[in-house]
């Protein structure tokens, strides 16, 4: 590939990754918009919508889908299970436990974690060229985390149980978010390697395949949510009140929000990310997940009707600067 072609691919890959980040950022505010909905219900609802959207998309793309082998469908199933359902259950639980900012910032470590893990195996860039961007991104994550921890522990929570309760909720939310980090460290690396090994499969076809394999998993999760809410309703979510299964007390709101998440965050976000994974080295796409973090922060602050503290604002600036440094490091020399 010529330098001009490489630059064009870099630009298109960056645009796709940014679009995916904007789409995925929406999932961080959904648990706050529906705080009485159990995490398993939110996860099953989102991916049930994803599967139904994929069914619609499958008809015009049925010929391409028929070219996928049995091993390809099994791979899509594993990606759907770990990268979709399991990831979002733990993410939603973390957000409902500790609020939006803390889980968002722990998930925000993904740009560094994925870049490190992927570069260990493919060595797409010498460590001396990769390190500056990762250091700046990590500094930004630490600054925003510091500001949000101070905000959480500096006020009396709504339960009235004081700082100790806030710290306990923060610790539990952090542990749940770390499980989500593990899931989504594996997903983009595994997905990117599959995309690069199968250049004849379009990003749209692979997104639809993941949606189709997500549908039966989402139905199982929906059934599990029914069992949990029937047998032990207080174990299903953050609220101690019984959940009105299947659609809850805000049925229309729930259906509309799940539809948006299924179409935009799941199908469109996956399709854009697949394209970025094909065009860019995994060490770079890992860093570009920071746009999901930035979008989630923007949506979270907007929902709270708040502005980031000066320390958090500085951290956000560092996150953007780190991505710019990282993208420049991968430009053709």
Describe the structure.
The protein has 333 residues and is an all-alpha fold. It has one domain (7-329). Helices cover 79% and strands 0% of the residues. The radius of gyration is 20 Å and the shape is globular. It starts with a helix and ends with a helix.
Helices, strands, pairings?
Elements: H1 3-24, H2 30-33, H3 39-58, H4 62-66, H5 70-98, H6 101-107, H7 110-122, H8 127-153, H9 162-197, H10 203-231, H11 251-279, H12 282-288, H13 290-304, H14 310-329
Helix pairs in contact: 1-11, 1-13, 3-5, 3-10, 3-11, 5-6, 5-9, 5-10, 6-8, 6-9, 6-13, 7-8, 7-9, 7-12, 8-14, 9-11, 10-11
Distance between the termini: 13 Å
Q: Over all CA atoms, what is the radius of gyration?
A: 20 Å
Structural class by SSE content: mainly alpha
Shape descriptor reads: globular
| Separate helix tally | 14
DSSP helix fraction:
over 70%
Order of helices and strands: HHHHHHHHHHHHHH
Total DSSP E strands: 0
Low-confidence stretches: 155-161, 235-239
Strand content: under 5%
Mean pLDDT: 81
State the major sheet. Answer: none
Whole-number total of structural domains: 1
């Amino acid at each position: 590939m010529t330098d001009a072609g490489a630059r064009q691919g870099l630009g298109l890959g960056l645009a796709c990754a940014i679009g995916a980040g904007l789409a995925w950022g929406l999932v961080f505010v959904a648990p706050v918009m529906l705080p009485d909905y159990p995490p398993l219900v939110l996860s099953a609802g989102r991916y049930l919508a994803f599967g139904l959207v994929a069914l619609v998309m499958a008809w015009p793309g049925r010929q391409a889908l028929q070219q996928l082998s049995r091993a390809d469908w099994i791979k899509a199933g594993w990606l759907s299970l770990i990268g979709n359902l399991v990831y979002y259950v733990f993410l939603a639980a973390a957000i409902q436990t500790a609020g939006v900012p803390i889980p968002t910032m722990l998930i925000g470590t993904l740009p560094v974690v994925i870049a490190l893990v992927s570069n260990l195996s493919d060595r797409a860039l010498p460590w001396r060229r990769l390190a500056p961007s990762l250091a700046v991104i990590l500094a930004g994550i630490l600054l925003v985390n510091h500001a949000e921890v101070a905000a959480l522990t500096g006020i009396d929570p709504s339960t009235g149980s004081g700082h100790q309760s806030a710290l306990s909720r923060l610790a539990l939310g952090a542990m749940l978010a770390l499980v989500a980090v593990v899931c989504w460290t594996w997903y983009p690396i595994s997905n990117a390697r599959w995309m690069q090994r199968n250049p004849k499969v379009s990003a749209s076809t692979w997104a639809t395949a993941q949606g189709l394999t997500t549908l039966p998993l989402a139905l199982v999760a929906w059934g599990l949510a029914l069992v949990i809410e029937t047998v032990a309703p207080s174990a299903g979510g953050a609220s101690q009140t019984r959940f009105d299964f299947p659609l809850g007390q805000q049925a229309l709101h729930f259906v509309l929000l799940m539809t948006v998440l299924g179409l935009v965050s799941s199908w469109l976000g996956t399709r854009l990310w697949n394209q970025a994974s094909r065009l860019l080295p995994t060490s770079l796409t890992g860093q570009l997940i920071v746009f999901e973090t930035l979008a989630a922060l923007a949506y979270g602050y907007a929902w709270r009707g708040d502005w980031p503290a000066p320390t958090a604002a500085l951290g956000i600036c560092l996150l953007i600067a780190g991505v710019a440094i990282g993208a420049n490091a991968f430009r053709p020399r």
